[in-house]
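# step 3/5: fold
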Amino acid sequence: MPGDAGELLTLQRACWVQEALANDSLADIPALHESLDDVLDWMRDWSTWVVRSEGRLVGAVRGRLEPVEGSGRGFAWAIGRVMVAPDLQGRGLGRALLAHIESVAAPEATSYRLFTGARSTDNIRMYKKAGYRVRTDLDAPPLAVLLTKRL
């Protein structure tokens, strides 16, 4: 919902400051440089779910269908912006968001795909426990790793 954009921007910045610290870079993390208009733009292109606790937006995740890179055929369910308020991390909300976004994948998708910071050990551990594997054979943005999982 567009009305969530301001809170999503705030949550996004809180979460990606931690990513910047873990990966020793503020400059290379796009989520830290987005404006409210940028968030509104991606909300139009991505299916987004939020979690509220006592009215407060405390978590969010987004997904969309994208062509599988390099293959020329097939689609992946791209997962992005798995966010949990810093004061609530470590309680299973990130795993619940990941499970939810996987459960609503478009039927055409044959795999899941997501990025995280190359030094974001907690994130990588969570994704590996959920069945994802790091794909060093595929391109990722600077300071990031690509993880995939078959449906």
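# step 4/5: annotate
The domain at 2-150 is CATH 3.40.630.30 (Aminopeptidase).
# step 5/5: archive (pending)
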